Amino acid sequence: MTGTRAQRDGYDVGLHLLDRQIIGADDRLVAKVDDVELTLDDDGALVPTALLVGLPALLPRFGPRLGSGLARAHRLVREAAADQAQPLIIDLDLVAEVTSDVRLTRPAHGLLRRMDQRRAEDPRRCRVGDLLGLPVRCAALPRRSKVLDLRMVGAPGSAGPHRVTALIVGPGRPGALFGYDRRSEPGPAVVGSVARWLHRHARVVDLDEAVRIDREVGEVGEVYVGADASLHPLRG
Amino acid sequence: MKRYFAVLLGVLTAIGGFVDIGDLVTNAQVGARFGTSLVWVVVFGVVGICVFAEMSGRIAAVSRRATFDLVRERLGPRIGFLNLVGSMLVTLLTFIAEIGGVALALQLVSSVHHVLLVPFVAAAVWIVLWRARFSSIENVLGLMGLTLIGFAVALWQLGPDWSELAAGLAPAEKPAAESWATYAFFGVALFGAAMTPYEVFFFSSGGVEEHWSDKDIGVMRANVLIGFPLGGILSVAIAACAATVYLPEGIAVETLGQVGLPVAVGLGKIGLAVVVLGFFAATFGAACETGLSTGYSLAQYFGFQWGKFVRPKEAAGFHIILLLATVLAAGVLLTGVDPIMVTEISVVFSAVALPLTYFPILVVANDPDYLGEHVNGPVANALGVFYLVVITIAALAAIPLMVATSMGQG
C-alpha cells in the first residue's frame, strides 16, 4: 500500500506520516507520530531523522498561540524535572515500513528515550510541526499563503536518498487538502472538488537555492520564495 | 457452515445490540406524542448508520484502523481534539444514561430505588469490562437483548387499527396540538439516537478486537445490512406500541416502566418479564459498549495500547480509563439525577458531535492507500455525501431547537 507508493513517488509528511499509529515489532501499539524531527545535513538537504512522541511534541502543534501556551502549561506541571519539555524520540532507522501505520523493527518494550538537551538545542534540527503553517512570502502567491505540507523523496525503512524535496504552499490550513491533491481517482467527487477549489491557488515549490526558510523573522519565522523558484500546480 | 453460523450470530447480536436506552426512551416518548408520524426519521437514521458503519467496518477489516485513528489522521491534532472532547462528552453522558437504565430496569423487578442499585450496577459493568472476553460480552448481551422482540409481538396482540397506524406514517399526520418546532426537535433527537457516534467507534474497534481481515467483509456487511434494519424495526415497534396505548389517552412517557407498560397490556405479566429482561440486556450491553468506547477514543487519539485482545496489564492505561469512567458515571448517578433526562440530553448532543466523526470516515473510505481495491463504490459515496449534508444540518439545528422548544416541552 503506501509503502510501495511512497517508494515510487515519495510521500507528503503531513498526510502520510504525521499522526499515524506507531506499532512495535511485537504488534504492541507504541504511540502516535506526534511530530517528525528534520536535520539539515552537510549538503544543505533537510533529512527526516526521528519520530517525536509525547505531549511536548504534540502540544506545540495546536497552533502558534494555543500550542505554545499549552506546552508552557505542560512544562509547569513538573517544573523541577529538567527534561519535562523534551519529547521522546524514535530514530527513523528503527522504522521498518510505513503503511496506514508505522511498523518498527524493535519490540515496544522500553523503546522510547527522552531527547537530550544538546540534541534539543542543536540549531540544525527542527520539527515538521514548526515548518507547517509558516507564512510564505512569494510574489506569485496570495499573501495569506502558508506551508501546507512537505514533500519527500524516498521512504523510511528503504535504501536510497530520503529528504524533503518540495514544499506545498498556498492559502488555507495544513492538512485541509485531505490528500485530494495526490490521487488520480479522488473520493466523493463533491468533496474532492470542494477541497481542490479551496486550494486552487496552492502550488508545489521545489526546495532549492531560490527558497529560504528563515526561523528568526517575526514570531514564528517565514519561508521566502524567490522569483526564480520553480512552482508547479498540485497535480501533474 | 461455520461462516453461516457467524453471519447468523452476528445478525442476531446486531439486532439485540442496536437498541439502547436512548432508543427505548426516545422512541416511546415520540410514539406517545406524535404517533407514527416520525417513524420515517428512524428508517432514515437506520439507513445512515448502516452506510457509515459499513464504511468504518470495511476500513477496520482491511487496514486495521479504528475510527478515532482516522479522526486524528485526517483532522489533525487540533480539530481531532475538539472532536475528542465532544464525543467523549456524548459517550460519557450515554454511558451514565445506560448504567442508570440498567438500574431502572432492576428497579422495575425489585422495587428498590434505582440510586441504591447504581453502585452495584457500576461494579458489575466494570468487572465485565475488566474480565469478560470481548466476544462473550457482545454475544451474550446481544442475544438476551433479542427479547425486546416482545414489543413487536405485543403490538400484534394489542391489535391496533393497522390502517390508522399506516396512515399516521405521513409527516403531515403530526398531532395538531404539537408545534412543528417540537416535531423537528424530536426528529433530531431520534436521528441522534439512531446515529450516535459511539456506535461506529465501538463497531470499528470491535472489528480490530476480533481480528477481522478483508475475508470478513462479507460477514460484516451481512451483520450491518440485515442486523441494523431489524434492530430498527424493534425501535419502530416500541414507538407503535406507545402510539397505540398512550396517544389516544394523551399520556406522556416519563419513566422506563411506562415504556414497557404497553407490553403488559398486550401480553400480560410474562410478556412484561421478557421485555424487562430485554431492557436489562440492552442497557447493560450498551453500557459495556459506551464504556469501552470512552477508552477506545482516548487511546486511539493518543496512540497508547488499547483493547481487550491483549491482557489487561498490557493495556493498563486503557483499563484505568474504563475504571475512572465507571466511577465517574456512578458518582453522577448517585447525585440522584434522572437517568431519563441524561438520556434526552445525550441524544441531542450526539447529533451535534456527528459531523466531525463521519467526515473522516467518508474521506478515508475513498483512500486506496488504506483500502486498496475495497474503496467506496458510487452508491456508498452518494449516500455518504447525502447523509453528511443531513448530519451537518441536524448538528447545526440541534441546539437552537433544544433552546426554542425547552427540550421538547413547548
Give the topology, please.
The complex is a heterodimer of chains A (236) and B (410).
Chain A: H1 2-9, E1 11-12, H2 13-16, E2 21-23, E3 29-32, E4 35-40, E5 46-53, H3 55-58, H4 64-77, E6 88-91, E7 95-98, E8 101-104, E9 113-114, H5 117-121, E10 125-127, H6 128-131, E11 136-137, E12 146-153, E13 163-170, H7 189-198, E14 203-206, E15 211-214, E16 222-225, E17 231-232
Parallel strand pairs in A: 2-8, 11-16
Antiparallel strand pairs in A: 1-12, 2-3, 4-5, 4-10, 5-6, 6-9, 7-8, 12-13, 13-14, 14-17, 15-16
Chain B: H1 2-18, H2 21-34, H3 39-63, H4 67-110, H5 114-131, H6 134-145, H7 150-158, H8 162-167, H9 180-194, H10 198-209, H11 217-245, H12 256-302, H13 316-334, H14 339-364, H15 368-371, H16 378-404
Helix pairs in contact in B: 1-6, 1-11, 2-9, 2-11, 2-12, 2-14, 3-9, 3-10, 3-11, 3-14, 3-16, 4-5, 4-10, 4-12, 4-13, 4-14, 5-12, 5-13, 6-12, 7-11, 7-12, 9-14, 9-16, 10-12, 11-12, 12-13, 14-16
